[in-house]
Write a structure and sequence with these properties.
Helix content: 25-40%
Bound molecules: ligand LLP
Number of strands: 16
Number of helices: 11
CATH superfamily of the largest domain: Alanine racemase
Strand content: 15-25%
Oligomer: single chain
């Protein structure tokens, strides 16, 4: 929560910056943890959503493992104290160097995305005298009903192994002495709010795993990835993602065989709502048709609106004036550097402080220095003064 005292503190801090509500992160994790414990599920936090040291330390404290998509993420997870036997590693383009680093770390599983990748992992593991545990990331051909850039499970997407390649994959694994197949992995997209997508995924998982079980191939682990969406429109009303609904849908629809372990890779749903991008109004430019509120935070700080046409709630937290319409924009020399079109904000003037909400996931971690702008710093609710 950004209360009055916090706003007073913000007034003394150079903007733009990221602000993380540690209490909200902890209550989110408490609910998440109680839900996975209720069903006996395992979770690996997707580092790609936010990899700040402080955030990782808190998440690790709840016993979650780590989901990584690069060698550096694997290294960071290990350095941050995540147990290697709870680290999973996906990605369509793992380099030899990255594979070797993950083999050295002794991670739980490589989530493999193609036939040639399995061969390379086997050969590198053989050279190093190791055996790699692998899961097959399957492309189940499911439309996640989300933005096309964050859909990953349709047959035209680059991710995962399609069912028509199963024979090639199992033949290859039979010939490989240095990989062990430990399960199947699915991740069909991100910011999924249509719960029927998860129901459908569970049904597809059952159809697809039968193929392996019919051939006496043991599937010890099923990993359902991440993807659960959060409320970007009304974050104050829904500060925590609908974990109860989500896990109850999974529990009802997923057929689990004796001894099978079920895994998840939540990213956004854990960290999105606890983060805010805090900015100052530089100028209000009054045009004939509209007013522009020009902020000191830009697309380089948070690229989601420019890249995915994403909606983020915007609040003027220092004005209580009558609501007026503004186009809220950033300072970067791109027309896509726009926070919102026709947004209702309390009457805004130079120096007001603006909070761009639901910025904890895929915000700071995707920031860049375009226009040679400084990278925004991070502050945490329990240490900011
Ligand atoms: N597992 C895998 C294999 C993934 O590729 C992802 C996200 C996750 C788990 C975590 O998904 P989540 O629970 O966060 O939905 N930059 C985009 C999102 C990209 C998601 C990439 N993969 C955005 O800002 O919306």
């Amino acid at each position: 929560m950004i209360n009055k005292d916090t706003v007073e503190v913000f007034k003394k801090v150079e903007t733009p910056f990221y602000y993380y509500d540690v209490e909200l992160l902890k209550s989110t994790l408490e609910l998440y943890k109680s839900q996975i414990d209720k069903y006996g599920y395992n979770a690996h936090y997707a580092l790609k959503a936010n990899a700040n040291d402080r955030i990782l330390e808190i998440i690790k404290g709840y016993g979650l493992g780590a989901d990584c998509v690069s060698g550096n993420e694997v290294k960071l997870a290990v350095k941050s104290g995540f147990s290697p036997d709870k680290i999973v590693y996906a990605g369509v383009g793992k380099s030899d160097k990255e594979i070797k680093a993950a083999l050295n770390a002794g991670i739980f599983s490589f989530n493999c995305e193609s036939v040639p990748e399995i061969k390379v992992i086997n050969d590198l593991a053989a050279q190093m005298g190791k055996k790699a545990r692998i899961a097959l990331r399957i492309n189940p051909d499911i439309d996640a009903h989300t933005h096309k850039y964050i859909s990953t499970g349709r047959k035209e997407d680059k991710f995962g192994i399609s069912p028509w390649a199963f024979v090639d994959v199992t033949d290859l694994i039979d010939q490989c002495g240095n990989v062990e197949l430990i399960g199947l992995h699915f991740h069909v997209g991100s910011q999924i709010t249509d719960m029927s997508v998860f129901e459908l995924t569970c049904r597809r998982v059952e159809e697809l795993q039968k193929w392996f079980i019919d051939r006496n191939i043991n599937i010890a682990n099923i990993n359902l990835g991440g993807g659960l969406g959060v409320d970007y429109i009304n974050p104050n009303e829904h500060p925590i993602a609908p974990f109860e609904d989500y896990f109850s849908i999974i529990n009802k629809n997923l057929v689990v065989r004796p001894g099978q372990r079920i895994h998840f890779e939540p990213g956004r749903a854990i960290v999105a709502q606890c983060g805010h991008l805090i900015s100052r109004v530089l100028y209000v430019k009054v045009g004939k048709q509209k007013k522009f509120a020009i902020l000191d935070a830009g697309m380089n700080d948070l690229i989601r609106p420019a890249l995915y046409q994403a909606y983020h709630d915007i609040e003027n937290i220092t004005s209580a004036g009558r609501k007026m319409r503004y186009d809220v924009v950033g300072p970067v020399c791109e027309s896509s550097d726009r926070w919102g079109h026709n947004r209702m904000l309390s009457k805004t003037q130079r120096g007001d402080i603006i909070s761009i909400n639901t910025a904890g996931a895929y915000g700071q971690v995707m920031a860049m220095k375009y226009n040679q702008r400084d990278l925004a710093k991070a502050y945490y609710s329990d240490t900011i003064k």
